[in-house]
Amino acid sequence: MKVIKILGTGCPRCDQLAAAARQAADQLGFEYELEKIKDITEFPSYGLMLTPGLVVDGDLIVQGKVPTVDEIKVLLEKEA
Asked: With contact defined as beta carbons under 8 Å apart, do 71 and 27 qualify?
C-alpha cells in the first residue's frame, strides 16, 4: 500500500494536487492511503520549500506545482 501525502495549507492548488493524485492512483489500481498535512511545521522534515508538495512513501517527489494526472501516474510508477 502506498502512502501519499499532500503538503500544503489547504489552498485550491493543494486540493487540485490531492484530486489529481487520487485520480492517478485510482487509474493505476494502486492501494493507497491519502493524507493531507496542513501543519507547516512538518514541511521542513520532508524538505519542502514550496507548496503544494506531493510525498509518496516518505519521498518528496513534487513541490511548488500541480502536475497533470498523467505526470503523477509516471511518478507513482517510478516509486512502485
From this structure: no
The structural domains of the chain, with segments of one domain joined by +, span: 2-78
- In this predicted structure, the answer to whether residue 80 has a pLDDT above a threshold of 80 is no
Question: Is 36 annotated in the active site?
Answer: no
Distance between CA atoms of residues 31 and 51, nearest Å: 25
The predicted-structure confidence for 20-62, as pLDDT tens digits, reads as follows: 999 999 999 999 999 999 999 999 999 999 999 999 999 999 9
Active site residue 52: no
Classify domain 2-78 at the CATH topology level.
Glutaredoxin (3.40.30)
The active-site residue out of 6, 7, 14, 55 is 14
Residue of 3, 11, 49, 74 with catalytic role: 11
